[in-house]
TrEMBL record:
This is Class I SAM-dependent methyltransferase. Keywords: Methyltransferase, Transferase. Residues 56-149 form the Methyltransferase domain. SUPFAM superfamilies: S-adenosyl-L-methionine-dependent methyltransferases (SSF53335). The lineage of its organism: Bacteria, Pseudomonadati, Bacteroidota, Flavobacteriia, Flavobacteriales. One of its GO terms (molecular function) is methyltransferase activity. Pfam families: Methyltransf_25.
């Protein structure tokens, strides 16, 4: 099967997820509409003061983070592969009287449909695992950044994706640097495990070395790579809530989150 066919299967799954997620406690859309932010502590601290900044949000789902960033004063453009996700994002943008823009496309094709240069390119939580390779992703990020602009990603650590979570207990099954696509089919979603929708998903594992090298080869300077034991989301089995309201493995055998900040080199 070609990658383009796998992308289409993923797109249909994400289209189906939108209605389920919009009704879920996980996304808490009612409180979001009333002014609560969907952003978490890692990205808020890393992005800093974004007022009057042009910001490109990659793989934005139905736009909650994009709109949260817009509320903070940034001029935002959100990109996602899901037609239904972008449709809902545009509806929310109008309803909340914000000025974000949303574009439906495969993230790897962003430069084909977005010509603007940005101060910040941002992506978070469950993103690069949908991409078969990262060189074109990093190239696109570099293309979309202004000189001296920066890219920031916070995502689940590559070690977490070595496990098969469709079985109990989770089984260590997939390679850290596995090149072959991983196919999973299961009922429900991370936002609503009781949903009857069937998720059909192709994903790819990427180690930290591949992530860093793809960005540096695209002309970005790595400011930092951080790894964290604590996740803002309780989406993996066996996590306990710490005193700061974050979720950790009791034994802390491996990190759950990584973050990278990289600057576009002005040449």
């Amino acid at each position: 099967m070609k990658d383009s066919e796998k992308f289409e299967i993923n797109k249909q799954t994400w289209n189906n997820k939108v209605a389920v997620h919009a009704k879920s406690d996980f996304y808490d859309l009612a409180n979001f509409k009333n002014g609560s932010s969907s952003l978490k502590s890692y990205e808020i601290e890393a992005l800093g003061d974004i007022s009057k900044k042009n910001l490109l949000h990659l793989q934005c789902h139905f736009g909650q983070d994009t709109l949260s960033l817009s509320r903070m004063g940034a001029k935002c453009t959100g990109v996602d592969i899901s037609d239904e996700g972008i449709k809902l994002a545009k509806q929310l943008n109008l309803e909340l009287n914000l000025n974000a823009k949303f574009v439906c496309c495969n993230v790897l094709d962003t430069s084909d449909v977005v010509s603007e240069k940005f101060d910040i390119v941002f992506t978070s939580y469950g993103t690069i695992g949908w991409l078969p390779e990262l060189k074109p992703w990093a190239k696109m990020i570099s293309e979309r950044l202004k000189p001296d602009g920066f890219f920031y990603i916070v995502d689940f650590h590559p070690i977490t994706w070595m496990f098969d979570y469709t079985v109990v207990p989770p089984k260590l099954k997939y390679g850290y640097q596995q090149k072959k696509a991983i196919y999973e089919e299961y009922e429900g979603t991370y936002a609503d495990e009781n949903s009857k929708m069937v998720s059909k998903e192709y994903g790819w594992n990427h180690g930290l070395g591949e992530i860093i090298s793809s960005l540096t080869n695209a002309g970005l300077y790595i400011e930092y790579l951080n790894e964290h034991d604590a996740s803002p989301y309780d989406i993996f089995p066996g996590l306990t809530k710490n005193t700061e309201g974050m979720y950790e493995l009791t034994n802390k055998l491996y990190p759950l989150i990584f973050e990278v900040k990289a600057k576009k080199i002005n040449v």
